[in-house]
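Quick one:
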Amino acid sequence: MSSKDRLEQIITLLNERKYLSVVELSQLCQVSEMTIRRDLNRLEEEGFIRRTYGGAALGAPTDGNGSSAKNAGDAAAEKNQAGKPENILLERVDVLIAASVNPNYGSHLVEGVAKKRIPVIAESQALHSEDPVVTVDNYQAGLELGRWAGQYALDHWLGRASVLDLTYSLANTQARSRGFMAGLHEVLPEAEVALSINAQSRSATSYQLTRDALAVHPKINIIFAINDATALGAMNACTDLHIGPANLIVLPFGLEGDTMKNALAEGGYCKAGLAMFPEIVGPVCVEAAVAAFNCQLHASKLLTPHVILTPGTLSDFYTLQEGRWRLRWESVWERLKVPIDINAIQSRPGSALPGRIGFLVPFSEHEWYRSLIASMQTYASRLKIGFEVIDADQNLRDEIDNRRRLIARAAVQQIQPGDVILIDDGPIASYLAAELVNSKEITVITNAMTIFNILSQNPDIVLINTGGAYRPTSQVLVGPTAENALSELRADKLFLMVSGISLSFGLSHTNISEVTIKQTMIRSAREIILLADHASFGQESVIQVAPVTVVDKLITDDALPASVRLDLTKLGIHIVLANG
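Output:
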């Protein structure tokens, strides 16, 4: 399909359905989500559609200020209200199933749900205390997996156990980690936790943290991962470090899709995993939604089953068919307890069916949510119930990206002709380079190859590369060569980026080689300007870069709480808020 044909197809689909998410359009057009986002941006620029969080809707063309030609006030109201993902979703659904989402996003959703009196079924963790929850017993399941790990260490390593806990910030994932360590200590009281760290529920972060943790704590022989994504990142790190599977095990909490089941069947690093059965959880969520719609759901918590599976027991519950692992439903009915009837397809005396169920999902790239969505869609279709998905995580990424662009634009305003500036590597760096690409009469020093490549297009910029050892995962130059070069240079301003910021731990980052060059940059600059969106605050990464007090100026977005801004101002840090 040509680009022109695809654009016409998108407009036709939106005419039919009024609103579609990026994920849905990607599936319908059979192209990547990135391609769809580019198409939507083009259609919005040409006035055919209105971009919304995570998707697009039909909308009147706007003028350069974002207002329609009909009525500027009406257009502003539409932009502020109709364009919000929660409002789009809530206008279309009768019941909402909500997975654990970012609290900043979830709070807006809860408010909208309460106003519209829409029943909510929470998956894994409640948005607020009154929601019925469909969940595995996270602590108990973690406890059982911890006991298994302790016995494995006794059988294979004479009881020696040093653990890397790749956890996450939500209450349900924290319960998994606590349960795992409690179970391990029941069997091996002397087992140690070498490091417990938030891997942000992402494979790339888990990969880097695992590499760094094993470099600092080489005795680690058990890695507990709160989901499959973090387990996959950890296993890839172990493979790249050439650590033998006989010396280390990775234990995932999930077995969410084919990836980790394949790893379990192979018997490499993954010697056991906690199966949560998304094939069961999905229908349970749908049936709970139907019951809530009819005011017939009286249980506050529906506990779904879990089982520890090993290479030898995987086939008890799953069979490999045409390259895919299929659940053996006969084993479910014989051996597991399902908290609600998920076979009531025909007989529903006294019950009405909702017209449409919505599912608010974070981390849509995770196999857990892909599997869960598939099982919910199949089950809802059998009931002839409409089913709609909204990707909360993509909404947040879109919002954060927009805020980072605004921060980069505000940073450019701090640069004067003749300035010598140092640009660190980080999530805002490429946006800053894009804003600087047409500048003149400035000198830029950087160790980031992405920055160097962007700015090398402009011969009017004096561009200095630090040299050093190339770090492919982050595309930066590090090591003594880079640090020595910086020690002989002086910059007027350093635009610094780190992964964590807190008042108690200061500025922190994940990798020691990047930390040392950031520290050298700080010593080489007259003014330290920290670029950070609000999501970086309250986070503490592995290694401290410097106290917060080294910062002269902070450029951030207006979502940073006023109390935090006040605390930073008291430390003498000048704060610049980047507004659209």
